[in-house]
């Protein structure tokens, strides 16, 4: 496609502003490790919330949604819509607990909740396992999306795309620390919103589409519009809806949607001014992520079925794209190739913003693990702030380099998504319960981590070759069910066969974060003089359910109105507004 001088000017302006933000915040970020990784724990909810949304506005997300819609229709999005449940649980139950913990990273939690060699091993191993291995995989999927966008819209080779995206992102991330990331995210969020909505509106006016009504009436599209899957076929509704809603949201670990909060979501909560701002940030994130953003992506995905109904059509239109990079997820950047001068620049800037926002967050988050939970804790405990910031900046560059290399080997964002879910299957319940059940110990988490990884290797590598367990191709979801079951039974057995943490460790943790006392009664009863805080867990669960209905109602209200179904759209909107009123009233009552 032709990119005009105006388009290039818009893109250049975007790069320059991003770099200036990094330079502006460099001095403050370099003053200490806490400034570099937590912005001094003084960030407001709106900035943190927007940053979370911008991070998950990754360029691979619209590609992933397009892949899902083309294969399984709108209903296929339950694969990620279901994570709203854990998101709302984080908002109303875990946000305040994380903020009270006052740890620097969520991995530091291990030596607050557990003790001894087990806790130290967990912290060190997961610093590398998550901060490097998992983090690099996530960034590689984002970089893969950048490769496909650069190839389709700019005619760039994979290496050229990665070099451009990597250099600019590494510069402002390594200079500005978390504050630079947050401020850049704020700027990039609005660019991304304008780009995604602008692209959707323009594509609907393409001659091949005609209008929204024509799109919805098209014979290929009309079968893809249902919010829920076909319940007459278990091989359709089980993996698309039942599994995500019943199991996946609480049982699996996935960055950005960790049960109980974690990763860069925890980093944002830990950098909040107070508990109220931590809750507000995660609430804004979940509302915007699930209710505000999906429909422009879905509309573009549905439109792509009209213009590029098959992968062969994509290959014919873009013969220069490597065969291993062809897939349904390529349809999103393919549709953007129809955009006019000016809008192309804005949309390209929005996609670049999406790539850079996600990469910068993961770079800062991953380097925080390497610095705080590995280097400072185990390599050089007496390191100065200057040394810690230097190590953080070096690790930022190295993480970006590793992810770029891996991106060149990947072919599909959906494949990576499924692999990550499989590796984390069965561990999620621990992250929910460890705050509220005294019996969980370090070996619970170590065993779960080991078992889930071994089981994932078995189902993804060994079983396909040896055929030890027969899993039909149309029932591949059985792998997740088996994995969750085996891992959960395994870590429960280990929990009851190993000694619990010492009472002094458990009491110190309880006093600091004051979780609901129900799961701590056996310990607290041994110390009658211990002050027991009356919890509000029941109310928090109620708000979680209210928030879930509110966001789903807002999501489907928009969908109903798009489909021209006014009455159900109005009813869903009323439910969403009522839920919002209850939640805002409750949030304002917080101290």
TrEMBL record:
InterPro entries: Na/Glc_symporter_sf (IPR038377), Na/solute_symporter (IPR001734). The chain crosses the membrane at residues 6-24, 45-66, 78-95, 127-147, 153-174, 186-204, 236-254, 331-355, 390-410, 416-437, 449-468, 480-498, 541-563, 569-587. Its main location: membrane. It is found in: Membrane. The keyword Transmembrane helix applies. It is a multi-pass membrane protein. Keywords: Membrane, Transmembrane, Transmembrane helix. The keyword Transmembrane applies. Gene3D superfamilies: Sodium/glucose cotransporter (1.20.1730.10). Pfam families: SSF. Belongs to the sodium:solute symporter (SSF) (TC 2.A.21) family. This is Na+:solute symporter. It comes from Algoriphagus taiwanensis.
